[in-house]
Amino acid sequence: MIPLQYELLLSAMLLCIGLYGVLARRNGIIVLMSIEIILNASILNFVAFSSYSGDASGQVFALLGIAVAAAEAAVGLAVFLSIYQTHGTIELDKVRFLKW
Amino acid sequence: MSSYGVFLPEAILVATALASAVLGFAWRKRPDLLWAFSVIGTGLAIFVTLDMMGLGVGRALNLSVWPSAVGTQGDFAVELKMRVDTFALFFQLMFEFVAFLAIVASRGFIHADEPHQGEYYALMLLAVVGMMFTAAATDLFVLFLAFETSSLSTFALVAFRKRDKQATEAAVKFFIIGAVSSGIILFGISLIYGIAGTTSIGTTTTDLLVLRNGLTLAGHPEIEPPLIIALVLLIAGFGFKVAVVPFHMWAPDVYQGSPTTISVLLTSASKNVGIVALFRVFLIGLLSVQVDWVATLAILAIVTQTVGNVVAIPQRSIKRMLAYSSIAQAGYILIALAVGAIALQSAPPHTDNAAYVATFGLVGGMLHVFVYGAMKAGSFLVVAGTESRGIPDDIEAYKGLSRRMPFLAFSMLVFLLSLAGIPPLGGFFSKFVLFSSAVNASAFNQWYLALAVSGVLNSALSLYYYARVIWYMYILEPEAGTAKEPVSRSISAAVFIALAIVMLTAVIAVFFFGYLTDAARSFFGF
Question: How many CB pairs under 8 A join A and B?
Fold first, then answer.
């Protein structure tokens, strides 16, 4: 079996990649994909811990987490579609109407 | 014995939501029917909740139709990982109440010919159901799922006017921030889940009570580094939802851009759902590892109050000003979190000073959450009332509002003074309890005094920008005509309910105080 540390390292890397994508990329769809990567990092964590401790609840959490990620993607795509219709772009740095 | 009857309010709300989504097609030309239907559903849920709290009509007439929360009837900690106790019911009542105000005002605010009204009411009610389950959750993951239910509904609600440029932009910002913070929270939960396996608990778990008893640093110092990472992620994630200061930048944009009835729901209910989640996660689940988080949250409370109040001063838009003031108010509520952490020092009979101070702090937090909900919802409803007459939310447009809309101007005056904490009004009593609990807590650690000092100074500071709005409304002459303008009756009714609560808090608190103390004690398990 692969040691637990490797899986945790992988999930930490996925978290960092996702956060980097959210902060640095400007395209709405890529930001949405980065958010999915963050969620998948935690799902991987749940599965890893659950399989190494023999507690099945982590795998149930993983399935529910996948459902949450899917619901979030659906709402997110709808929101990006509506901003495309009002602003004509999903480049997030071109969308600046509200600011202090 | 537990009884599924305790979920009756949620069942009523879900049924109303689904029915109004379907009826939205049939009643496309009759939005007033949809409105009445949602108002009745929410009112019924509030009625049942009040009865379960033992404060409603049924208890007064000595009927026992619904299960009562006082006792073990709401205890589903084993089957569903939820417990509908007095603490949960209090927050559930608050969420239903804010939703009720927002729904009542919707009739005057949403134009009769706007599309998708069935979905509007359905999403609003589903968001409230998610919030209510969050208040009842006893497991980190169940809490997360309930939290997501309410977040996903509010993302869609912000973009309800999907042809409005400001609304869609606010929705994009809200969605990105909300989704990233959910991801961060989930990562933090997954770490806690794994950490629990290496402690004396012996198995991986996310149950809050098990974590409270088992997750200690004593004997397991090796769990501290991953635990700190998990705590940082949880504080950041929930901090985004509550708009605590380093994570607050989204809040003014979203509150300003979304339809004002939705701003009511976001600022009063959605923010408080983050607060209740913080209470559950930190004061139950992570209470035993508090050396790592109390100081952080106390500093965040002070910074949040100060930054919120200072940045509110130069704002010209009333909605943005109210948004920054709601950031500051969240800072006051965080005081309860820091004071509540003293509960750990209380020994088993739980009649000592530590138990007293922790209970007192939590009571202050709950009271402030309730009064804050009423006054913030009320002030945003006033903005909704003026907006529906075509007055923009710029402060210049409020010149001489007392001549044009006397009732709304008077209500705004009361809400603003209450937010600042002027004595006969609600905000004074809740702030008094909250700040004096911080003073009492200084018996354990003198740094708690800083929380009380910062709270009082910030309240004084906030009076400056509240008074400026009052000055515009009452002293300055209106530019265009002094003729009275009619205000939508439904918005006036909603404002009136909030006004009554803020003005009569002193009376209501007499009935409530014993209930709140019981709730706080049962929350800590004293």
Answer: 135
